[in-house]
Amino acid sequence: WGSQSSKVHIHHSTWLHFPGHNLRWILTFILLFVLVCEIAEGIVSDGVSESRHLHLYMPAGMAFLAAITSVVYYHNIETSNFPKLLIALLFYWTLAFITKTIKFVKFCDNGVGFSQLRFCLTGLLVVLYGMLLAVEMNVIRVRRYVFFKTPKEVKPPEDLQDLGVRFLQPFVNLLSKGTYWWMNTFIKTAHKKPIDLKTIGKLPIAMRALTNYILLNEAFEAQKNKRSSSPQGSRSIWRALCCAFGRPLLLSSTFRILADLLGFAGPLCISGIVHNVGKGNNTIRPQTKILGVFFISSQEFLSNAYVLAVLLFFALLLQRTFLQASYYVAIETGINLRGAI
Predict the structure, then answer these.
(1) By the 8 A CB rule, do 288 and 116 touch?
(2) Pick from 109, 111, 154, 167: most CB atoms within 10 A?
(3) Contact of 19 with 139, CB cutoff 8 Å
(4) Cα separation of 287 and 39, whole Å?
(5) Distance between CA atoms of 123 and 35, rounded to whole angstroms?
(6) 3 state SS of 53
(7) pLDDT, tens digit, for every residue of 219-238?
(8) Residues 6 or more apart from 126 whose CB is under 8 A from it?
(9) What are the boundaries of each domain within the chain?
(10) Where is the signal peptide (predicted)?
């Protein structure tokens, strides 16, 4: 219903992002990782108990599926530009935040503290659900699609209305940007036959030389107005370049730093795995038993070789993603900068 009522103005299967688009995807990725840790913590705790306790990991498993469903649901609503259907997510985040808060308060009442990993994970989930709820309420505030008399009308950009523009990287979701999924069309076409400029299509407006020239010229004129009494030279040009293209270069540097920091995770995880396997006894013996089940600490959780192996996989995956993102942003910014000059 939403797709049929709102895709009449554009020719591409995407749209402008809702407010907080990137933040929502980042929070969802973090939420999925924390839920995986909660599932693993429940399985490890259940393995050292005398009897089975499905409630230690089954709710976290259901929450993991719900988080995936929520982001798929959001993506389809966003590409349909039908924000009224987001009201379902508003109710879900509200209920999830309330129930996790109740669970966190119950832990506090029963003497569970920061020394237990489950307490820390529950606290993180409360914060994440609260932030996702805030993002959802911000969409309502900006788009005014519900609780307001006049909703905000959003027109599709010129790039999406032009069939000649096929470079849709600015308009795809964060996951597609990180995995370059949006390039599959070009890859399939190039696999079948050699591609030419007509197949590639026109550049989007933001990447055209004229657009970047105007951006650089405005920054240069601003530098001239600030220092009208001093002679102009290469220093003003460098300042103008930093002002016009400094943010994407800073973003590229940030991605590279994060990738280099994650490079330390590999040796640390491998060292922990070798150390734990070398001991010959990988069984956890937690000392804390509350509410009839064992509550393991972070140190006891990380003494499991299987947990370290999973963490190693996620760390390497995230490292390569940040590294490729750094290369992409730097190359794209360099092209825009040369075009402007």
Answers:
(1) yes
(2) 167
(3) yes
(4) 20
(5) 12
(6) coil
(7) 888 877 776 555 556 677 88
(8) 97, 100, 101, 104
(9) 1-150, 196-340
(10) none
Q: How far apart (Å, rounded) are the C-alpha atoms in residues 101 and 126?
A: 6
CB-based contacts of 32, cutoff 8 Å, min separation 6: 64, 67, 68
Q: What is the pLDDT of residues 295-321, one digit of tens each?
A: 788 888 888 888 899 999 999 999 999
Token digits for 119?
A: 């307490």
- Going 38 to 39 to 45 to 50, the CA torsion angle's sign is positive
8 A C-beta contact, residue 38 and residue 60? yes
Please name the residues in contact with 73: beta carbons below 8 A apart, sequence gap of 6 or more.
88, 89
| Torsion of Cα atoms, 75 then 76 then 78 then 83, to 10° | -120
Structure-token match 């499991």, residue found: 304
Which burial class, exposed, middle or buried, applies to 147 when counting CB atoms under 10 A from its CB (0-12, 13-18, 19+)? exposed
Residues 6+ apart with CB under 8 A from 108: none
Computed on alpha carbons and rounded to an integer, the radius of gyration of the chain in Å comes to: 25
Calpha distance 46→44 (Å, rounded): 5
Q: Which residues are paired to 293 by β-bridges?
A: 290
| pLDDT for 190 | 87
Question: In residues, how long is the chain?
Answer: 341
CA distances from 64 to 59, 60, 206, 315 (A): 9, 6, 37, 19
Predicted TM-score (pTM) above 0.70: yes
Q: Where are the alpha helices (DSSP H) in the chain?
A: 2-6, 21-47, 58-80, 87-109, 117-143, 158-161, 174-179, 184-192, 197-200, 209-226, 234-262, 265-279, 298-301, 305-340
Neighbours of 306 (CB within 10 A): 13
